[in-house]
Amino acid sequence: MTANPLNGPAQDPRLDALLRQLNAAQARNIGFPAAVDIDYRNMAPLLAHLLNNVGDPDADPTHPNHSKDLEREVLAFLAGLFRAPERWWGYITSGGSESNLYALYLARSRYPDGVIYHSTASHYSVPKAAHLLGMTTVLVDTQPNGEIDYDQLARLVRWHRDRPAIVVANIGTTMTEAIDDVGQIRAALDRIGITRRYIHSDAALAGIPLALADDPPGFDFADGADSICVSGHKFLGTPLPCSAVIAPRRHTAHLDQLVAYTGCADGTITGSRNGHAAVMMWSAIRRYGREGLRARTYEGRDLAAYTCRRLEEIGWPSWRNPEAMTVVLRTPPPAVLKRWPLPTSGSWSHVICMPGVSRIQIDQFLNSIANAVLPHNFPNLEGAYRR
Ligand SMILES: Cc1ncc(COP(=O)(O)O)c(C=O)c1O
Hints:
- The chain is α/β, with parallel strands linked by helices.
- The protein is built from twelve helices and 13 strands.
- Helix content is 38%, strand content 15%.
- The longest helix has 40 residues, at 275-314.
- Residues 95-97, 100, 123, 125, 172, 174, 202, 204-205, 231, 241, 243 line the site of pyridoxal-5'-phosphate (PLP).
């Protein structure tokens, strides 16, 4: 029997093979937004137990297998980070898609005849949620950096000014990590005199790093958001996909329905919910705290700035939004992409310097671009870039 790197005997050669495949892929995984610096393996003993945080996090269920006390702490931490009003509510969802669905469900319940405006750079879960909810959507173009075009938003809202406006602000778009400024969205709505409005900040990727950085752009509750979601498997790198969604209590209270069988109100989209994900988010927050998470933010940004500088030296077109961990670059040649899988849209790809991505990995990647394109000019790049 082969040894299992997670200690203990292997259960199945297929699982060993999967683990080997994942370990091997990690060395060249610089394109996808999952932090890899937090080791969650001390959670393994909890896998011996079901953790089902069914329904409302505020009420402990009749069954003992849950982690709702830790879930409540995670939500309180995030509510504080996002400057929520005194009375807020939220829960840990299965991922960003469910969080966006829940947020738009809240918006629809407040404004059943509302029109959803979102940019062409919004995540595909936004139009999907609108479709599931049977809501009208209007697509808004972006500026070249991926940020919503505020003037076009204002023009489109004017056309439908008899209906409430529900705007999704992308707080870190999937391809370029662009930030839609909630202050500018509000100003656009003010110009047209739209008072019946709801703004959802989809901060799946960048919510935590932005909230902890100096001088963040406006995206949180104090800036005018009505709901905010943030993913656990992105910046916190939880090995289980999950997300948190938070909104003022006044938007959520009327949706609660007590279920006698579980002992909890049913205000969540799914009934049974993943209690291990809540423990993992709690563990990351507990271990790092605000200062540790902030340090991780700047590590990612600094590495992204370094990547941009080096790409410029090589002469490979690239750019990055201010403060982003994402570096957008001209799509590398196929031979490079084969070794370094990167998300690609048209002729642009991106690298994301999530916490845990190392300078050595970036140097190796730059080396393969330089070697593929300019083999004679950069014969020994890897050594030159290594610290
Ligand atoms: C900005 C944004 N919103 C929402 C999502 C959806 O998240 P999930 O895949 O967890 O459903 C993503 C995922 O990449 C995202 O980048």
